[in-house]
User: Fold this.
Amino acid sequence: MWFKSRAPRMAVLNDAAEYFAALRDSLLQAETQIQIVGWDIHSETPLVGPSGVVDDDLPLLLAPFLKALLKLKPKLKIDILIWDFAALYAAEREANSAAKFADAADDRIRFCWDSCLPLGSAQHQKFVVVDNSLAFVGGLDLTIRRWDTSDHLREHPLRKDPQGKPYPPFHDVQCIVDGDAAAALGELAMRRWQAAGCIFEKIDSAAADRWPKSVPIGARDVTVGIARTEVASRSSGDVHEVELLFEKLISVAKTFVYLENQFISATKIAELLAQRMAAVPSLQVLIIAPKLHSSWLESRAMQSGSNSFLDPFKKAGVRKRLRILHPSSAGQPIMVHSKLMIVDDDLVRIGSANLNNRSMGADSECDLVYEATTEAHRDFIRRLRRRLIGHFCGVAEEEIAENELRLLQFLDSYAVAGAAKALHPIEVGQIPFRAINDFIQPIADPRVPLNLEGAANRMWTTKTILGMAGLVLMLVALAALWRYTPLRSYADIGFLSALMSQDDSPFAVLIAIACFVLGGLIIFPVVVLIAATAAALGPWTGAMTAVAGVILSASLLFMIGRYLGHKRLQKLLGPRALRVQERLVGRGIIAVAILRMVPLAPFSIVNVVAGASQLKLGDFLVGTILGMMPGIAVMAALGSQIADFAKNASWGNVFLLGLTIVIWIAICLAAQFVVTWLAGRNA
Assistant:
């Protein structure tokens, strides 16, 4: 751990309403410095407690509150460090956030955008330090769509964003410490500022008490450790204290491990937990996680990882002593955003680190861990665990205590009984779009920074840029030739069908197949070839010939891509990208089939690129056949009408051609549904 000391006082705040009320109370007592470090911040965050009202005559919303506070405190300065987020999150973030805080603040609110991490990594630490003497640490940012009470009502009049849009129940925890532990977090905030290249003015700790009057003390004189994940920079190396702390806590578990986490995809941690459960037959594990994630990207990124998380427990034969549950309130899933771990009655960890790969090495994280050294400490930990589990079920901690010896079975039966608030099993195993998920997951949830800048520098050399530019120009030139020169006449369906039929020549099929092979080499539109084949040879023969032509053309171009690009791609992308590709092997059929179902997909280019990848030829060909068959079937069935349209563009033929396209799209959508459903069944 980076820092270990004694905290005179500590407490755990359940949910944002408790945290925001306690934070407001402490900020009102601040005199010299407030340090806010986070992943996100929003000027319109409602800084209120469970009642939703304030009695201090200051504004309710965060930015106006801080500015009003500055007018009351002439020596106070406020430092805000937030991740300089990726463009992917732009739609979810507040525009001009820094200006909304700093405007009319006389330079006493200083904003630092942390952009020092590699592209693909995030500043994910979440803590606030008041006068270097009190600190709040956990999973909560001072942003919108976080506020909720511990009742987690299905609907709450105050649970709305600034546009008035309601959001689901939301759960998180935050802890509060003072003394040396708070001062150490102030030091950590200063280091983050310096790493981000921002000027930071250190202020000495205040001697006065900043503990919020509304918060009862949970435990006194507690040993506190601070664990970090930091990405290597020019001045320092990687820090993996978060991962090492997980390993240490698991290694000492004896009876019960309780986890709350937004993500569960770190398979290494799952393996350690499963091994410990196998070695200690009395050990049980309860994990609370969300049923749903807040965005499509999060769902795609974490679903595959969550399934893999379960595998070690199945292999170790300890699945019966494990529960992975999600909370709900009156049928409405509760969003679990907390990052908490309780081991037996001895250890509590709360912080920003998720139970995913990113938090172990790719993002910056900060966790606090408390170690019980007295019976009073152990009693506090027991009560905390019971309170958290009980609040998900709508029961008092005393009822959880009465059923603690058979807690997992109690939770099972409580959910089956149909209680309004309960913990339900998270269904795993059925993953739609598995190929897409498996491709996104290693990129969105890496164990180490993706180092995209380095890959770009290796890839985009002058030689590579010139080569790519030449390739693009060549493709554009070929497309222009087929569209704007006399070659256009050769791309006519009527001309091609006449060429293939050759007055019922016995070689018509071979001529048609040769057209596919030659057409692939010169990037001829494959849709035109399929239509011409169907028109020339009739439904059944045309369909079979088109399939043979597609297979031969695709195979040839695939092998050309494999010869030209396979080794070069390996060298360029390195071992990590190849591991991503290896995860697609065996599922490549689905990915290729879905891609082929799009009528406008560039047939020749897809073939060459697939050959340059790690995809198996067999998977590629099966996926190609599955994906191309809907279009070939439609073209074969309506081949004569298409040929007639090419010769006589009447309104009737226009209607038939439009109907052909509609049927093609409908069959493609239906086939995509069937393919992805089968992929989910076989996952």
User: Anything to note?
Assistant: The longest helix spans residues 539-584.
